[in-house]
């Protein structure tokens, strides 16, 4: 059966891609952010995933305001990289794994999650930047990919409790797949930030650190927060924390924190990273 080795939750800020494209990783402004990913890469080399299930939010590349599903799952043989306006460089397509995608889709529907099924899907910075951070020398990386979209663009957004349950259903679907795959969950987005309006540039370090702590040991505590609570405490785009919550839901009840980092600001945004190992399997990190 498939094994979920763990999860990486990470910010996906558009400026990251431009910084990497322009070789700015060691500049004083960027170095504290990029340095946080070295330990994550070391753990990945030990975990050896075959597949990365990337839980992210589409930014108008596949879906727009006139047709925006709450949940969507990719079921394509490959996923082309396209820029939705931030200057993302051109990269080869990411490899899909349709047989696993269809198993996840069918299992989610059986568990009462009505998902949009995407047999063609393009990926934007929210998918590409985290993958480049984790495998900076391999684009596309040496893993198959399964993109899963959660709406954070147009209200109503899914409740925090719904996203945690969605993640748990994803985890159950993956672990019931009859193949000896090693699966990494990647939850992208956040942390606190607001891109426009009177609170443009808003960051709440205390809220971010609370969310990161709860994601590790008590993700259910975050379900007490409504989407409007998150907007108030974390900014309009801080709602992207629901991708972290879904990623955590895909893991077992208990995890080991391998690594974490937090840095502000990155392009007026709080940036966070967690590496969590699934305790349901033998320890990978020594």
Commentary on this structure:
The protein has 286 residues and is an alpha/beta fold. It has one domain (3-278): 3-Layer(aba) Sandwich (Protocatechuate 4,5-dioxygenase, Chain B). The chain is built from nine helices and eleven strands. It has helices spanning 14-21, 31-35, 38-47, 98-110, 125-134, 160-175, 205-217, 227-234, 241-249, and strands at residues 3-10, 51-56, 71-74, 78-81, 94-95, 116-118, 122-123, 144-150, 182-188, 255-263, 271-278. The strands form two sheets. An eight-stranded mixed sheet has the order 6-3-8-2-9-1-11-10, with helices on both faces. Strands 5-4-7 form a three-stranded mixed sheet. The longest helix has 16 residues, at 160-175. The model has no long low-confidence stretch (mean pLDDT 94).
Residue ranges: pLDDT <50 for 5 or more in a row? none
CATH topology category name: Protocatechuate 4,5-dioxygenase, Chain B
CATH class: Alpha Beta
CATH superfamily: LigB-like
Order of helices and strands: EHHHEEEEHEEHEHEHHHEE
How far the N terminus sits from the C terminus, by CA atoms, comes to 24 Å
In helices, the fraction of residues equals 25-40%
Strand content: 15-25%
What is the number of domains?
1
User: Number of helical segments?
Assistant: 9
Largest sheet: 8 strands, mixed
| Number of beta strands | 11
Mean pLDDT: 94
Architecture, according to CATH?
Answer: 3-Layer(aba) Sandwich
Shape: globular
Radius of gyration: 17 Å
Major sheet: order of its strands?
Answer: 6-3-8-2-9-1-11-10
What structural class should be given to the helix and strand makeup? alpha/beta
């Amino acid at each position: 059966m498939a094994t979920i080795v763990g999860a990486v939750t990470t910010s996906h800020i558009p400026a990251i891609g431009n910084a990497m494209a322009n070789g700015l990783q060691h500049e004083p402004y960027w170095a504290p952010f990029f340095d946080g990913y070295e330990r994550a890469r070391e753990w990945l080399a030990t975990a050896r995933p075959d597949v990365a299930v990337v839980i992210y939010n589409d930014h108008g590349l596949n879906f727009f305001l006139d047709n925006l599903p709450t949940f969507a799952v990719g079921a394509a043989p490959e996923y082309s990289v396209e820029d939705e306006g931030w200057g993302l460089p051109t990269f080869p397509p990411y490899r899909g794994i349709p047989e696993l995608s269809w198993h996840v889709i069918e299992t989610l529907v059986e568990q009462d999650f009505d998902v949009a099924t995407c047999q063609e899907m393009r990926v934007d910075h929210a998918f590409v930047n985290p993958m480049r951070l984790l495998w900076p020398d391999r684009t596309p990386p040496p893993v198959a990919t399964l993109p899963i979209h959660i709406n954070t663009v147009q209200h109503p957004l899914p409740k925090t409790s719904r996203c945690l349950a969605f993640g748990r259903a994803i985890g159950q679907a993956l672990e019931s797949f009859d193949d000896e795959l090693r699966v990494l969950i990647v939850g992208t987005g956040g942390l606190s930030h607001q891109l426009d309006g009177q609170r443009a540039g808003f960051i709440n370090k205390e809220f971010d650190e609370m969310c990161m702590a709860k994601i590790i040991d008590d993700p259910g505590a975050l379900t007490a927060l409504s989407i409007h609570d998150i907007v108030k405490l974390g900014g309009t785009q801080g709602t992207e924390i629901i991708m972290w919550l879904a990623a955590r839901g895909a893991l077992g009840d208990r995890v080991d924190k391998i690594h974490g980092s937090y840095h502000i600001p990155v392009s007026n945004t709080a940036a966070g990273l967690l590496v969590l190992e699934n305790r349901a399997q033998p320890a990978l990190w020594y």
